Amino acid sequence: MTTNDNPAATSSPNDPVEAIVRAAESALTVRRRYQFFVWTQSYLSRLIPHQLVVCGSYDRTSRELVFDVFNSVSLEPALMDALGDARSLLMQHWQACWLEARGKPAVIATADLAFTSLGIVRDALLAAQFQHVLVHGMSRPQRPQEIESFFVFAAQDDGALAPLAGRLELMIPHIHGAWQRVQVVERDVVGASTPQQPTVRVGGVTQREREILSWLREGKSNQQIADELGISALTVKNHVQKILRKLNAANRAQAVAQAMSLQLLERVSTQPAARPRLVP
């Protein structure tokens, strides 16, 4: 997911210390899902480049980790299901690997997912060019087996994650704190919904608008989306404006994050369709 306004752009790309400080400071302002997504795509991505981050937080009601998936590339439905399911063999395996590493950041090779039942998700990870994943989390003090939060990062640049384990070790308290704060605020917002609160017209988002949201998630421009769908760039722009209004979003990044949290993008195909004639 790319945005025109990248607040981390002022950081020197050659100064990781400054980037860490900026990322830590900006994490304190994160309170909503869309803010977390924007933060990971700007400040955090300068330290840990990635196209996929899976965030898990322990839910005391269900007594298990609850996962959210933030991806800027299209993934197979079977893989999305496994990433979002705390009881899936994939997520259980990655957590076990982290615990075996004694709570330190761990780089796990996708090819090592040798279980027969993991064949589909392993192939989907490889198809997405995720040769390795970097995992880390936080456990309860003095109780390492009781995981409070768990995060998975994946990048298409093979070998790029391994050298970043040290950075993740420094950033994990800030990632954990930001994600925990998001959980609390989101629950409060849902529980304290009032007529004055802006509403999201989920039912009003059309199939075509969901298609466009899927392309926005992949960072495509209006013209690129128009070329994929066989419509004009102006028509795409009009659709985007309607999407922003329906999802109560200020920009594309917020719209994508809101759509992801509402599961509007599940199983929406972004495969190019047969090109119809250009429509004004």
From TrEMBL:
UniProt keyword annotations, A-Z: DNA-binding, Transcription, Transcription regulation
InterPro entries (UniProt xref): Sig_transdc_resp-reg_C-effctor (IPR016032), Tscrpt_reg_LuxR_C (IPR000792), WH-like_DNA-bd_sf (IPR036388)
Listed Pfam families: GerE (PF00196)
The protein's name in its UniProt record: Response regulator transcription factor
Record domain HTH luxR-type: where: 198-263
SUPFAM superfamilies for the chain: C-terminal effector domain of the bipartite response regulators
Range of residues in the leader sequence: none
